[in-house]
Design a protein that fits this description.
The protein starts with 5 loop residues before the first helix and ends with a strand. It has 3 domains: 6-158, Methylthiotransferase, N-terminal domain (Rossmann fold, 3-Layer(aba) Sandwich), CATH 3.40.50; 175-406, Alpha-Beta Horseshoe (pyruvate-formate lyase- activating enzyme); 412-467, OB fold (Dihydrolipoamide Acetyltransferase, E2P). Helix 3 links the parallel strand 4 (73-78) and strand 5 (108-113). Helices cover 33% and strands 22% of the residues. It has 13 helices and 21 strands. The protein is α/β, with parallel strands linked by helices. A 6-stranded parallel beta sheet has the order 3-2-4-5-6-7, with helices on both faces. A 5-stranded mixed beta barrel has the order 17-18-19-21-20. The radius of gyration is 23 Å and the shape is globular. It binds 5'-deoxyadenosine and iron/sulfur cluster. The site of 5'-deoxyadenosine has 12 residues, from strand 15.
């Protein structure tokens, strides 16, 4: 039993990152014939972690099922970024408990991910959810085989609180045969005052560029068309390893592997260099799409958030990107209702939105996270007021999305087809280089191909097209 500890999670002792090359062998038949169900909440990092978890499970004999009722083990890979992520977990846990008590008493219920790193969550699980069998954290996913093989009837909490290491030789059961996530950097040292990530994910640590390049080269060889480089602070890549490539240099090297489409998330404006912009602008296979979180347009709030840039610096960067990268689309994240955000502060945010005319944005009401500095700030703004601000902001954002999307009508774009449209099975959907969702008439045979599509109609959240 190892319990999470937020004080330990907060520490940054600048210990050297250990690079651990996994090579343990396990009994491939230990759970032969048993089925796993995995439910993933949250960001791309979690989606990719679930691909790793699946590989660990399949390594000891489990096979995947899409039906929770059918499973021998349920894994809930959780997100801690806002309170509603907590609510979702407890909702689903109720369903798992029902299956365990009514039809499958042997069901193993396991919780992992960012919530597993939170002390208050683990205390609640121990007190109120004794039917949960296993909790493991973000730092010990690679121990999953061991934890399951050695499992007893007692609830087991195995959460390591540490700055974090880098594991190599990690196997993934990738969800897609043509689109892959590649971690280049883990954790975060920015400690924005509202954010739980530096606590749940540990210190910023980069993988070695040689290991990243090897992984991408393999993917290209296996026929993958798109790679997205992942990191909580993707463009701070390399800063924690002496003599390592910068993010711009890494981008160039990854582009040189010949991968057809190269993307990366998420960039911090503070680490966005001119060199990066130049590399993106000159390589056709680096997609002209950038997610550039703003969070707030008010200098006062940005300072309280610990974001390290002013409204003016953000706009200067934004304009530079727009001017240098052909037809770039830019999206953002915005938080409204940070403690004591005034009407003037909020209007400053609207001001930036009006300047940037984003292609789209993820918008959130501030959610206090226990253990973060902002959670201790007093807040005089009522929830109704925050909801009203969010609503108005979304309206504005949607207008700009539509305005930007309308510019696509009549032109033809390359679309990487990802699947059949949920609502209309005569159609497929895919994404343009600029990350616009396009629906058009087509069949299964197009999935995993890049095809030219003429855009015939635009909505706020998608485009309609016809194949050329
Ligand atoms: N409350 C609301 N939104 C948050 N985000 C991160 N932490 C919080 C929080 N405590 C948002 C930020 C970030 C995105 C992933 O989630 O906008 O960029
Ligand atoms: Fe959170 Fe800020 Fe780090 Fe992003 S940069 S993960 S918002 S602390």
């Amino acid at each position: 039993m190892n319990l999470p500890n937020i004080k330990e999670d907060r520490k940054r002792e600048n210990k050297k990152t250990e690079f651990i090359y996994l090579n343990e062998e396990y009994d491939k038949n230990a759970f032969k014939g048993q089925k796993y169900f995995i439910r993933t909440y949250g960001c791309q990092m979690n989606v990719h972690d679930s691909e790793e978890i699946s590989a660990h499970l399949e390594n000891i004999g489990f096979v995947k099922t899409e039906e929770m009722e059918d499973a021998d083990i349920v894994i809930l890979n959780t997100c801690a970024i806002r309170e509603n992520a907590h609510d979702k977990l407890y909702g689903f846990l109720g369903r798992c408990k029902h299956v365990k008590t009514s039809t499958n008493p042997n069901l193993i219920i396991a919780i992992c991910g960012c919530m597993a790193q939170e002390e208050n969550v683990v205390n609640t699980i121990m007190e109120k959810h004794p039917y949960v069998d296993l909790v493991f954290g973000t730092h010990n996913i690679c121990d999953l085989e061991k934890l399951l093989i050695n499992k007893t009837d007692k609830q087991n909490i195995e959460v390591i609180s540490c700055e974090g290491n880098v594991y190599e030789n990690v196997k993934y059961k990738r969800d897609s045969k043509f689109k892959a996530w590649v971690n280049i950097q883990y954790g975060c040292d920015k400690f924005c005052t509202y954010c739980i990530v530096p606590y749940t994910r540990g210190k910023q640590r980069s993988r070695k560029s040689e290991d990243i390049l090897k992984e991408v080269e393999e993917l290209v060889k296996d026929g993958y068309l798109e790679v997205t480089l992942l990191g909580q602070n993707v463009n701070a890549y390399g800063k924690d390893i002496e003599g390592e490539l910068s993010f711009a240099e890494l981008l160039q090297k990854v582009a040189d592997t010949g991968i057809k489409r190269l993307r990366f998330v998420t960039s911090h404006p503070w680490d966005f260099t001119d060199e990066m912009i130049d590399v993106i602008a000159k390589n056709d296979n680096i997609m002209n799409y950038i997610h550039l979180p703003l969070q707030s347009g008010s200098d006062r709030i940005l300072k309280l958030m610990g974001r390290r840039y002013t409204k003016e610096e953000y706009i200067t960067l934004f304009d530079k990107i727009k001017n240098k990268i052909n037809n770039v689309s830019i999206t953002t994240d915005i938080i409204v209702g940070f403690p004591n955000e005034t009407e003037e502060d909020y209007n400053e945010t609207l001001d930036v939105v009006n300047h940037c005319e984003y292609d789209s944005a993820f918008t959130f009401i501030y959610s206090p996270r226990e253990g973060t500095p902002a959670a201790k700030m007093e807040d005089s703004i009522k929830l109704e007021e925050k909801e009203c601000r969010l609503y108005k902001l979304n309206e504005l954002i949607n207008n700009y999305s539509l305005k930007n999307n309308k510019k696509y009508v009549g032109n033809t774009y390359d679309v990487l087809v990802e699947g059949i449209n949920d609502k209309d099975s005569s159609k497929v959907f895919g994404y343009t280089e600029t990350m616009k969702l396009v629906n058009f008439v087509g069949g299964e045979e197009l999935i995993g191909k890049i095809v030219p599509v003429k855009i015939i109609d635009a909505k706020s959240f998608s485009l309609d097209g016809e194949m050329k």
